[in-house]
Design a protein that fits this description.
The complex is a heterodimer of chains A (317) and B (290). With 317 residues, chain A is mainly α. Chain A has twelve helices and no strands. Chain B has 290 residues and is mainly alpha-helical. Classes of the chains: A mainly alpha (317), B mainly alpha (290).
Chain lengths: 317, 290
């Protein structure tokens, strides 16, 4: 088990290096001067060169990459061109905010998704299955940024029950777990939850149907085990895969939060990414993408190891 | 003995005919396919269907609600007819949903088939490279690439293609690896056929079906992602009528004309759900076990 975890971790290292290279290269795909956003258009050539040297943009690419990587390994993601603050600080705060809505959304999605999935898998081809499957198709098909707008229209504009945007009176700086702030979480989290809901419902439905068709279930029933007892066996068999899908969904939500955070002006990593793109803040852009991608890689690793631990039948070389 | 063998050779309908027959028995999937067909026809005949010019606005008639005289679905923030813009929007929105998936299908299938057929080092190098791109959540990769390249149709297509190449390559690789060790491939090799001939005659026919159906299921995802890029201002540029971009520019009117703002999203939703239901139906029609 431990050997597998170590081996899997070692396999992840080259992926992480590749991810860093892509993040670094991405920024250099961008056309134009990397300092275009900070320098006035009439800045003298001397100042330009001085700034380029300060940020290290004058060095050859491989040297820039090596230096950047060495600094990243020490937790230094550089300085935001726009705010002048350390990128690691900005990203850390924003990722924390996104984790709040993404975790809540994953939990809502997992509860609803497993419920729909179990109902659909247990009562295959009944109207319950059709309704639950329709909910799942809805979840994977709806453009969630549009759903967010619809929810804002209904619950904020028309009914006035919930705030439409933002993170509360003090913003994310003064976040406290009271109703005034927590109510800002509800609409973004519910909007986000439709994606994991749909995907988990589909996965669980297929899992449950597959497990129920296996011979051991017929055997358990023949032995006179109660339907609840059979249900426990189904849950045990479905849990590792369902939990793995849930874990990976959390990573997708965290990395893909930009659309929802733009709709709700939620001060998370997506909104930060949006700012970094439109203000051409390259160190911030690079840092945000890198942190989100590495988080996804580590999460995948953790999910994989967890799944092998939970389900000893999975033999992995 | 001979007679029995001959009888077994009574021509059975081809694989795709069987699949289509099974598909036709699913009314929901057929309905979805009709909607898709309708949307494609709407895109093709947009100039003849749209009552007005989608780009010509009237400053005096801005943000009229649906049901206004002469504008059955109202007008947008620049006074352009919504119905005409939604009809014309089918063109660019469907284009952005389908084209990246097809370019990714060509590139991903080529990479996957070569990796799967060659095996060894070629496979390792190609598939590990794919793994690196796979390590990014899809929305993040699309946004990062589009953000770095800058807005525009071509850049969005490049970004979305790169998002879909790795998953398609993975499917292509695993299907090809399965086919490679089949007896008929071994037989072709033994009789001296070259790699290209084997791939063309024996591998392609057996792997393209599953890869194609997998790619079809990505169209809905691609539609939503492409509209998302336009919604962020990283995709199609104004004044082009794209559904995602329309959602973006109408967002400011969310308090005054909520119904109007919701319309472009309805179109994206109808398109993506129809594609999803259609490909689900196609997949279960191809799944002989079900």
């Amino acid at each position: 088990m431990l050997a597998y975890a170590i081996k899997r971790t070692l396999f992840t290292l080259p992926i992480m290096l590749g991810v860093s290279l892509v993040c670094f290269a991405l920024v250099h795909l961008a056309p134009g001067d990397p300092l275009v956003s900070v320098l006035p258009p009439d800045a003298s050539q001397a100042i330009k060169e001085q700034m380029m040297a300060l940020y290290g943009f004058d060095r050859p690419y491989h040297e820039q990459f090596a230096r950047w990587l060495a600094r990243v390994a020490q937790g230094d993601l550089g300085t935001s061109i726009r705010t002048g603050r350390p990128v690691s600080l900005e990203v850390g705060k924003a990722v924390g905010n996104t984790l709040m809505i993404a975790t809540l959304a994953t939990l809502i999605g997992f509860v609803l998704g497993t419920l729909f999935g179990f109902v659909a898998g247990y009562f295959r081809d009944s109207w319950l299955d059709k309704a639950a499957s329709a909910a799942a198709v809805f979840g994977v098909s709806v453009p969630h940024y549009w759903l967010g707008m619809i929810l804002v229209i209904i619950f904020a504009v028309q009914l006035g029950w919930l705030p439409p945007t933002g993170a509360g009176p003090g913003g994310s700086e003064a976040w406290v777990w009271d109703w005034v702030h927590v109510q800002h979480l509800i609409l973004p989290a519910v909007t986000m939850s439709v994606i994991p809901m749909g995907i988990i419902a589909r996965t669980v439905r297929a899992l449950v149907a597959e497990i129920l068709s296996q011979e051991f279930v017929a055997g358990l029933r023949a032995k006179g085990l109660s339907e609840f007892g059979v249900f426990r066996h189904v849950v045990k068999n479905a849990a590792p895969t369902a939990l793995a899908v849930m874990g990976i969904q959390l990573g997708y939500l965290l990395g893909g939060s930009i659309l929802i955070e733009t709709v709700f002006s939620w001060p998370g990593s997506g909104l930060l990414l949006n700012d970094a793109i439109f203000q051409r803040d390259l160190p911030l852009l690079q840092g945000t993408i890198l942190v989100l991608a590495l988080f996804f890689v580590v999460l995948n690793l953790a999910v994989d190891v967890m799944q092998t631990t939970l389900d000893p039948r999975i033999q992995r070389a | 003995m001979r007679a029995a063998t001959a009888e077994a050779f009574v021509r059975s309908p081809g694989y795709w005919v069987t699949v289509l027959r099974r598909f036709a028995r699913d009314p929901v999937a057929v309905g979805a396919a009709m909607v898709v067909l309708g949307l494609i026809l709407m895109a093709v005949f947009a100039p003849w269907l749209a009552p007005q010019d989608p780009l010509q606005g009237m400053t005096l008639k801005r943000l009229r609600p649906p049901g206004t005289d002469g504008h059955p679905l109202g007008t947008d923030e620049l006074g352009r007819d919504m119905l005409s813009r939604l009809i014309h929007g089918a063109r660019i929105s469907l284009f952005m949903g389908i084209v990246p998936v097809f370019t990714a299908l060509v590139a991903g299938a080529a990479i996957g088939i070569v990796a799967g057929y060659a095996g060894g080092w070629t496979n390792t190098v190609l598939m590990r490279t794919m793994d690196v791109f796979f390590a990014f959540p899809s929305v993040l990769l699309a946004v990062a690439l589009a953000g770095a390249l800058g807005p525009g149709i071509l850049n969005s297509i490049i970004a979305l293609t790169l998002v879909f190449v790795p998953p398609i390559a993975r499917v292509a690789e695993s299907v090809t690896t399965g086919v490679r060790s089949r007896d008929y491939v071994e037989a072709a090799k033994a009789s001296g056929a070259g790699a290209l001939t084997i791939i063309r005659k024996h591998v392609l026919g057996n792997v393209l079906g599953p890869i194609f159906v997998y790619a079809m299921s990505l169209i809905a995802v691609c539609m939503i992602l492409a509209s998302g890029l336009s919604f962020l201002g990283l995709g199609v540029k104004p004044p082009m009528p794209d559904w995602g971009l329309m959602l973006n520019t109408l967002r400011t009117a969310i308090y005054t004309q909520p119904l109007l703002c919701a319309l472009p999203g309805v179109m994206i939703f109808i398109t993506s759900i129809s594609f999803n239901i259609m490909t689900d139906g196609l997949r279960s029609a191809m799944d002989i076990k079900a």
